[in-house]
Design goal:
In chain A, α1 packs across α7 and α3 crosses α4. Chain A contains eleven helices and no strands. Chain A is mostly helical. Chain B is mainly α and 215 residues long. Chain B is built from ten helices and no strands. The termini of chain B are far apart. Chains A and B meet through α8, α10 and α11 of A and α7, α8, α9 and α10 of B.
Chain lengths: 211, 215
């Protein structure tokens, strides 16, 4: 690897790190090319040279910090798998989302941004996640055919429920419905409940199909 | 002639209070909670900032009075109650209606949306105390359901925490981001109906699971 290339990589790292620091310290309101330049020590012309503008820098940052985008990139689905395997895959993905989101303050700020103001970049990011997510969800169409149950609605409520509970806890607002996830036991209870609810919707669809 | 003058004065005071409360709502809608600053509020109503102190005390007291007006949970807790001998079916129905009503109310109440967003955006003693008061009332209802769930090992509290959070999140996402979540877009009526139906089903399944385990 040439020296130039290494330097470029280091500069890019310094820039995405600076975005992360600004995000966690000041929130999305604090992000601008000037602020990133000051926080990273990289000149503005250099930022434009590497990224063409703030938008692409933010995109690079988000695709690193987001749980879903890197996940979908590396996900290799087997050509053929049983319904049980698919159910377990969904459960794992949701439980991982819970763990990752609880641990990653930077992603918390991204999700908060996404629901705080209309923003074309955040909308585009959401739509990219959705494209892959829906493909994954549609693998279970067979199991839910004629069942008159919406797996998508159940998973949507769970994904949102996980985001909300973690954000609520991070803001120091206390418990939600008597559950305080800063308590390890109650955190585990939530992780288990996510699995139980996916189990329950799966079972309910199976029962309806047999009838 | 002294008496009518006094009356007008009282009404003026009430009007200023009303203006200050409305200003909180308008600033919250336009700029979010970060816009709630004494100077900005005073400028918004065209009065000196001492008016806030005079009518409410500190900024936090004005904010508290505003939230007290807009928060739909205290009236919910008056409406949704369970007697000491409520049956399992009554408890199930009550929670289903409470969650579905929360979805409808949150969807149409934009100021409440900003309040909930505020609650999860920054550490704030006022938000914490409001949330804790809500939790206390909620705990009374949850305690009625819990005995049914003990044998099954399912946590009804966790189910409701996920539902509650899911409802809040989906509405906030639909309002600002406008894209779908797992293909669900509650800006569409059909999808809203699906969410309402699914809320009922999730509670139903949770209760069903207790029956299977108890047998």
């Amino acid at each position: 690897m040439g020296r130039r290339r290494r330097n470029k990589e280091q500069t890019i790292r310094r820039l995405t790190d600076a975005v992360g620091r600004i995000m966690t310290e000041k929130g999305y309101n604090g992000i601008g090319v000037n602020q990133v330049s000051v926080a990273s020590g990289v000149s503005k012309p250099m930022i434009y040279e590497y990224f063409g503008g703030l938008n692409n820098l933010l995109k690079a940052y988000i695709s690193e910090k987001d749980y879903w985008l890197p996940f979908f990139e590396t996900l290799k689905l087997p050509a053929d798998f049983s319904g049980e395997e698919l159910k377990n895959l969904y459960i794992n993905i949701l439980q991982e989302q819970f763990r990752y989101f609880s641990a990653e303050k930077e992603m918390q700020k991204l999700i908060l941004w996404q629901i705080s103001e209309p923003n074309p970049l955040m909308r585009a990011v959401s739509e990219t996640r959705e494209r892959d997510g829906i493909r994954l969800l549609e693998l279970s169409d067979d199991h839910f055919r004629n069942a008159d149950i919406s797996l998508k609605a159940v998973i949507a409520l769970l994904v949102g429920g996980i985001y909300y509970n973690v954000l609520h806890n991070s803001a120091g607002t206390g418990s939600v419905s008597g559950i305080d996830i800063s308590n390890e036991k109650e955190y585990e209870l939530m992780i288990n409940t996510v699995a139980q609810l996916v189990d329950l919707v799966w079972e309910a669809a199976g029962d309806k199909q047999q009838k | 002639m002294a008496t009518p003058r006094k009356k007008i004065k009282i009404r003026d005071g009430e009007r200023t209070q009303r203006e200050l409360l409305d200003a909180i709502g308008e600033i919250l809608m336009e700029c979010g909670y970060t816009g709630l600053r004494v100077n900005k509020i005073a400028r918004h109503v065209g009065k000196d900032k001492s008016a806030i102190r005079h009518h409410f005390g500190r900024l936090i007291d004005l904010e508290k009075a505003y939230i007290k007006e807009k928060d739909y949970w205290p009236p919910f807790f008056e409406r949704f109650q369970l007697g000491d001998h409520a049956t399992k079916d009554e408890i199930k129905t009550m929670f289903t209606e409470l969650m579905q009503e929360n979805f409808h109310s949150f969807l149409t109440n934009h100021e409440m949306q900003k309040i909930i967003l505020w609650q999860i955006s920054e550490e704030n003693p006022l938000m914490r105390s409001i949330s804790e008061a809500r939790e206390e009332r909620g705990a009374q209802l949850l305690s009625k359901a819990m005995p049914y769930f003990i044998p099954s090992g399912t946590s009804f509290k966790a189910v409701i925490a996920l539902l509650l959070g899911g409802i809040y999140y989906l509405v906030l996402h639909a309002e600002t981001n406008k894209s779908t979540v797992c293909g669900v877009d509650i800006n569409r009526e059909m999808d809203r109906n699906t969410i309402v139906k699914t809320i009922g089903e999730i509670i139903e399944w949770a209760f069903l699971a207790t029956e299977n385990k108890n047998n």
